[in-house]
Specification:
This protein is an alpha/beta fold and about 425 residues long. The protein is built from 15 helices and 12 strands. It is about 35% helix and about 20% strand. The chain has a 7-stranded mixed β-sheet, sandwiched between helices. It has a 3-stranded antiparallel β-sheet with strand order 1-2-3. The protein has a two-stranded antiparallel ribbon with strand order 8-12.
Length: about 425
């Protein structure tokens, strides 16, 4: 009798150990991932995933491709006629399910799927820290519009589209708005290069037809706009971009990025209300973030008021880098940029230069050197959130697809769709 009881106890203990091991293995599979990331792989776990939830807010490095609307049988509820429409990120480490939506079985009939509407009106943009803005200003003034002859096509080149794709891919839960100053036809994607079609396959990328009057009316820059000071500027394209980036951040909040960056990390780790040091004299305006309300909003309002009163159309950097440098030093009550980096940690943060500008502008050509490429990329991945390409200096430098140039390596990894569809030159 005692022996029988002992066997039962041993069996119960063994079953308990096996059950605990199974639970532990599942727990490890679900939780043993980098902080801030929730990857799920196509496996038996798909059977227990609930629908309608965002599964990956941060996509790791090494992303190769994005696949949308792949259909798998829904095994959750046992319905043979149900499907899961999922969004998958395929990376070197596996396949991460980004979104799962339940739908009825597709009909056997062939149906034409209407492309998503990529246009957004200004009035539909909400105030949110999740906004990301890009601004194209070739046709933003009457003076510059006469210099170009566009027929309703998307005017951004592959490098500029790379800036947008890399930011969209690293920030899938943020909404990107591309303000486009030149006229666009409703079917511009069909008339554009393949890389433009690939860019707008991302569901978080939208385009806004830019109307300066709509943007500046009722803002601290209305007087400057009404006086046509942007029209008479020596640098109308650049200064209109300066005015727009600060105004959009004042109106809606969020992040502004230049069109010559490659974003390599999610912006989540940076918080809100920040800019980046360029050098010991300058805080750059190439990547900026402000909240739509509170101290950050008040700070960008003071910057706009200063621009309105002291606009300088003869100085290339006066209304961008010099403006944010002046405003940040006043906000932080410090005498220098290096002091701002070290001490400005309250309502506004000035990040060190390696966060956004790991390659200084005087070394912009290094980004096109085959011998330096791998080391530049390795170093940038350690600390940087984005890499500035300094288009004003480097736009004529050739970047070869498949080369070991740093720019090529960054584009291949962080804007893969644009990179693979731009031909032999990037």
């Amino acid at each position: 009798m005692c022996l029988s009881k002992t066997k039962k106890r041993i069996q119960l203990v063994a079953l308990s150990v096996i059950f605990s091991a199974i639970v532990l293995s599942l727990w490890i599979e679900l939780t043993n991932v980098p902080r801030g990331e929730e990857p799920f792989y196509r496996s038996r776990l798909l059977n227990i995933l609930p629908t309608g939830r965002l599964y990956s807010r941060v996509v790791g490095m090494g992303v190769h491709e994005v696949y949308f609307d792949e259909r798998l049988k829904n095994k959750q509820d046992g319905e043979q006629n149900a499907n899961l429409t999922i969004t998958i990120i395929s990376s070197e480490s596996g396949e991460k399910i980004v979104d799962v939506k339940q739908s009825k079985a597709a009909s056997n009939e062939t149906k034409t799927v209407k492309p998503r509407d990529v246009f957004v009106k200004v009035k539909d943009i909400k105030k949110s820290t999740s906004n990301v803005f890009f601004v194209e200003t070739k046709c933003a003034t009457e003076k510059t519009a006469k210099m170009f002859n566009f027929n309703g096509e998307f005017v951004l080149n592959a490098r500029q589209c790379c800036a947008i794709e890399s930011t969209a891919l690293a920030n899938l839960d943020r909404t990107l708005y591309v303000f486009h100053s030149c006229p666009l036809t409703d079917n511009f994607i069909e008339r554009s290069p393949k890389y433009v079609e690939k860019l707008f396959a991302y569901p978080n990328v939208y385009v806004v037809k830019l109307n300066n009057s709509e943007i500046f009316t009722g803002t601290p820059l209305q007087e400057l706009y009404d006086k046509k000071q942007l029209e008479t500027s020596y640098y109308p394209i650049e200064h209109t971009s300066d005015a727009l980036r600060f105004t959009l951040l004042w109106r809606f909040g969020g992040t502004y990025c230049d069109l010559d960056v490659v974003t390599i990390k999610s912006l989540h780790g940076l918080g809100s209300n920040w800019a980046g040091m360029q050098d010991v004299r300058t805080i750059a305006s190439g990547v900026l973030n402000f909240e739509p309300t509170g101290p950050g909003h008040e700070m960008v309002q003071r910057a706009l008021q200063h621009m309105n009163r002291h606009f300088n159309g003869a100085g290339w950097s006066n209304n961008g880098p010099m403006l944010i440098t002046r405003t940040a030093l006043q906000e932080c009550k410090v005498p220098s940029v290096t002091k701002a980096v070290a001490e400005c940690k309250g309502n506004f943060t000035v990040h060190p230069n390696y966060i956004f500008y790991p390659v200084y502008y005087s070394r912009a050509f290094d980004l096109f050197d085959d011998h330096l490429g791998k080391e530049i990329v390795r170093s940038a991945k350690l600390w940087a959130y984005s890499v500035h390409i300094w288009n004003k200096l480097s736009h004529d430098k050739k970047c070869r697809v498949g080369s070991t140039q740093a720019y090529s390596l960054l584009a291949e990894e962080f804007c893969p769709r644009v990179y693979r569809n731009c031909g032999t030159r990037f």
